[in-house]
Specification:
This is GST C-terminal domain-containing protein. It comes from Setaria viridis. One of its GO terms (molecular function) is glutathione transferase activity. One of its GO terms (cellular component) is cytoplasm. Pfam families: GST_C. By secondary structure, the chain is an all-alpha fold. It has a single domain, classed as Glutathione S-transferase Yfyf (Class Pi), Chain A, domain 2 (Up-down Bundle). Helices cover 68% and strands 0% of the residues. Helix 1 packs across helix 3 and helix 2 packs across helix 3. The model has no long low-confidence stretch (mean pLDDT 85).
Length: 109
């Protein structure tokens, strides 16, 4: 978990460094945004909702949260993403199974 936090801090700094950027490449969506946003902007929000946890907080990751919201607001992006409500319904229906699988991978106490 510590490595994930460090990596999120690096991404946060890239967006809010000396030259505040709307997207990772500047003012328009680029390859890095497209590659990262599928996970962070859309899927992570769905999984956070289903699991009832917050990975990217407004306090700790304001630039990443803003970036995700701006990416998801883009009309071209909206046309390409799966329906959020359907994703929430799917993962909610399979939540217990996913938790069981994750627990089975943990080392024994």
């Amino acid at each position: 978990m510590a490595v994930a936090r460090e990596n999120l801090a690096i991404l946060e700094e890239q967006l809010r460094g000396k030259k505040k950027k709307r997207f990772f490449g500047g003012d328009s969506i680029g390859l890095v945004d497209t590659a990262g946003a599928g996970l962070f902007a859309h899927w992570l929000g769905v999984l956070e909702e289903v699991a009832g946890v917050r990975v990217l907080s407004d306090e700790e990751h304001p630039a990443l949260r803003r970036w995700a919201n701006e990416y998801l607001a883009d009309e071209a992006v909206k046309e390409c993403l799966p329906d959020r409500d359907q994703l929430v319904a799917h993962f909610s229906a399979n939540r217990d199974k996913c938790i069981s699988i994750a627990k089975s991978m943990l080392p024994p106490n």
